[in-house]
Specification:
InterPro entries: COMT-like, COMT_C, COMT_dimerisation, SAM-dependent_MTases_sf, WH-like_DNA-bd_sf, WH_DNA-bd_sf. The protein has 375 residues and is an alpha/beta fold. Strands 5-4-3-6-7-9-8 form a 7-stranded mixed sheet, sandwiched between helices. Helix 6 crosses helix 7.
Length: 375
């Protein structure tokens, strides 16, 4: 077998101490005096400062959304004093917020001093569940305020206490409802990308495990009018799912299965099973057992669709390996896995064919599709 780099040009080598040299303040001053190196250094410096100010930028977005500033500009540009009066803020402080929004390309400052929506700001208003997610970030950011404690300790966090739902098969009904609402409101984009990457053509019945209030199943039903729907989740979650399906006229097509996927086998009768944002909530042992249960429940030719943010593995991915990796760390349960890791779990469980189509929007979701026979 040829070596992995056979036929390729040799990789460039760094001389000893190169990174130490880069880390020297005196060398940075030297670079600023060399035109070619200056451009590279300033580009790297700008990228580094973007990382440093990242939290502040996210909080500016939160303020614009929660104060309704972006929505208020849908009807056209407005000035700082006008918006401040409507919001009950001092005009000078509204001006700070608007100027920051323009710097982040969420707003556009006009020559007359008023502010209007930029393309990115308008698109922000179309993101389902964004306001809920930004409010939820108050918990996550509180945990991220001390990353050393998050990394080195195992003490409960604000996020883990919020999602204690995950550790219990008999959660508090109000807690379960809050979890399901947040998941449902952020599910539209996930469902859209999942169904494009893993179309359900030819599937007669789909079992969604841990499907919450049924947002993903409802999206699948809209695309496939003959599809029978099955949902497995904890009893406190199912009333919201039942209400959704009845409201959409899907009650006759739907079978609800109260219970935990930790207990006993999965319901039989589906030729496809979906795990949407489920595995990364749980440890490896639980994930392996669930995949094995899915394999046992599927008939010949059945398929398993796993959809969630996935690590880039040997090519680290910004969304999963930064945001979602630290979020699951704060949850104190589960972790992000690469598509290769998930594929290995599927093969270990006895799936014959596994593929991972290129994600459309990795910050939304990635997908692994496993089948019980070669296709």
């Amino acid at each position: 077998m040829a070596a992995p780099d056979a036929g390729l040009p040799p990789r460039p080598r760094r001389w000893p101490g190169f990174h130490r040299l880069l880390a020297t303040p005196g060398f940075q001053s030297f670079v600023e005096r060399v035109p070619l190196l200056r451009r590279i250094a300033r580009r790297d410096g700008t990228a580094l400062f973007d990382l440093v100010q990242g939290f502040v930028a996210a909080q500016v977005l939160s303020a614009l959304v929660e104060r309704g500033v972006l929505a208020a500009l849908l009807d056209g540009p407005r000035g700082a004093e006008d918006l401040a009066r409507a919001q009950g803020l001092r005009p000078d402080r509204m001006a700070v917020l608007l100027q920051a929004g323009a710097a982040l390309k969420l707003l556009r400052r006009r020559r007359d001093g008023r502010y209007g929506l930029a393309r990115r700001g308008a698109a922000t208003l179309g993101v389902p569940g964004l306001a809920e997610m930004l409010r939820h970030h108050r918990l996550f950011y509180a945990d991220m305020a001390d990353p050393q404690a998050l990394l080195s300790g195992d003490a409960p966090t604000r996020v883990s206490r919020h999602w204690s739902y995950l550790a219990s098969d008999e959660p508090d009904p109000a807690e379960a409802a809050a979890y399901s609402r947040l998941m449902a409101r952020t599910q539209a984009l996930v469902a859209e990308d999942t169904l494009r990457l893993a179309p359900l053509d030819g599937v007669r019945a789909l079992l969604d495990v841990g499907g919450g209030s049924g947002a993903f199943l409802a999206a699948a039903a809209a695309r496939h009018p003959a599809l029978r729907l099955m949902l497995l989740d904890l009893p406190p979650v199912l009333p919201a799912a039942r209400a959704r399906f009845e409201r959409l006229g899907l009650g006759a097509r739907t079978a609800l299965h109260p219970g935990s996927f930790r207990d006993g086998p999965l319901p039989a009768g589906a030729d496809a099973i979906s795990l949407v944002r489920v595995l990364y909530d749980h440890d490896d042992a639980t994930a392996r057992r669930l995949i094995a249960k899915a394999r046992a429940a599927l008939p010949p030719g059945g398929r398993l669709v796993i959809s969630e943010p996935m690590s880039g593995g040997d090519r680290p991915a910004r969304a999963a390996d930064v945001y979602f990796a630290f979020y699951t760390l704060a949850m104190r349960s589960g972790r992000v896995r690469s598509s290769a890791e998930i594929a290995a779990m599927c093969r270990e469980a006895g799936f014959a064919t596994v593929r991972a189509p290129r994600p459309l929007r990795p910050f939304v979701t990635s997908v692994v599709i496993a089948t019980t026979v070669d296709v």
